[in-house]
Amino acid sequence: MARLTFIMVISGLVVVADCTMFHLQPNTQKCLREEIHKNVLVSGEYDIQEAPGQKVDIQVTDSKGHHLYLREEAEGGKFMFNTDDYDVYEICFSSRVPPTQRGIQQEISIKTKHGVEAKTYESLGEAAKLKPLEVELKRLEDLSESIVQDFSYMRQREEEMRDTNESTNSRVLYLSLFSLCCLVGLATWQVLYLRKFFKAKKLIE
């Protein structure tokens, strides 16, 4: 029981949810960007302040320009998608106001969730006829797997950064040795040239 309580406390500390609120000026666009890993479920819920005559479009895209969610004249809603690759994903809100109307700023709030927190375990439990405790254990199992994957990704990134650092150090060392050899060779050539020049001028023997 103590171990289960500890796991539940940990799960409460690693909730991946972002809630953002901002004001969108008339005929402008504002975007939110975030890097997300591969095969991660992302859900979002947004609410847009009503303004007569003004329209707001929302679109979710990746760095390649693929539309994962698109809705014109939105007032509020939800979206959900699964990431196909590690990429930068962008959520953009665009305001449109008729030329004959003077627009006002609109308040927009959006809440996004990633990974385990984006899954709807209640509906999953109802479909599979699971008890509440079984649903919670399933959520904790997915959360533990997500934590393991995050640590694995961090270890992989650390190895890549270490390899890059070692490669950079080796290249700098070789470049330094090459520069030193060039300087020594140039200095030797200058000494021999000056000695030959002074001998030709009979300044030295």
TrEMBL record:
Transmembrane segments: 172-194
Membrane topology: Single-pass type I membrane protein
Signal peptide start and end residues: 1-19
Cellular compartments per GO CC: membrane
Pfam families xref list: EMP24_GP25L
Record carries keyword Iron: no
Domain GOLD: 29-139
Superkingdom of the organism of origin: Eukaryota
SMART domains for the chain: EMP24_GP25L
Keyword annotations: Developmental protein, Membrane, Signal, Transmembrane, Transmembrane helix
Subcellular location, record wording: Membrane
Family from the record: Belongs to the EMP24/GP25L family.
Name of the featured protein: GOLD domain-containing protein
